[in-house]
């Protein structure tokens, strides 16, 4: 989904270690093109299991376990309404300065199945991001800045296919809902119209990734392979076009092959509910 690269200017976070706003130790892992910020994570055992053995990540009443990407708290544009996570929309700056920012669950996952329901308002655009990392890059001015989550995380596209222009962009429908954004189209395309609830799921297991929409598998691919590298080089994340994003995507999740899941601030009003995850060791 994105569009215009927006950096969150935070200069001091490229240091070898520091503390976040809650006094928790965080470390920086070096790379020629980027630096990853590594923080302590929440304990998944603090979240109940449902009857199917999925951990309930959102109970409909609190933000327990969640925070803003590259933030310590919850962006004010994210609220809870009628048991749903709601993003209330911004003026399009998509940064904490505008009360926005992506929302992430404060734990990294490797092999998992994430399930969720989603609903868009007319013309809305958003996404579910996974295997993401918090990284900083150095700009031409020599300052360290947080890179947006979509630079390090594949995106399950959330979109009003009938009314948002992104549905007609990209290649062969690879920006329509449930697609692997700008890389692979979702087929069959079975999304419901804006204002109606859809079910979604993302399964990552031993490098094999599957997107589901309304009960059907619609995207499948394998990570950390030559085919994956070739797919990247045929997209907006190609090495020649965007070397930092290419390196992050090509080595998705870093050496541990794990990362954050997140819901995207794309400036539009969207809803999520029934957010659950099953983790395989």
The number of helical runs is: 2
Report the sheet-strand fraction.
25-35%
In the CATH hierarchy, what is the architecture at level 2? Sandwich
Largest sheet: 8 strands, antiparallel
Q: Structural class, judged by helices and strands?
A: mainly beta
Classify the helix fraction into a percent range. Answer: under 10%
> What is the H-and-E element order?
EEEEEEEEEEEEEEEEEHHEE
- The count of strands amounts to 19
CATH class value: Mainly Beta
Radius of gyration: 17 Å
Q: Please give the alpha-carbon distance between the first and last residues.
A: 31 Å
Q: Which consecutive residue ranges, at least 5 long each, have pLDDT under 50?
A: 2-24
CATH superfamily: Exo-inulinase, domain 1
Q: What would the CATH topology be?
A: Jelly Rolls
The total domain count is 1
Mean pLDDT: 88
Shape: globular
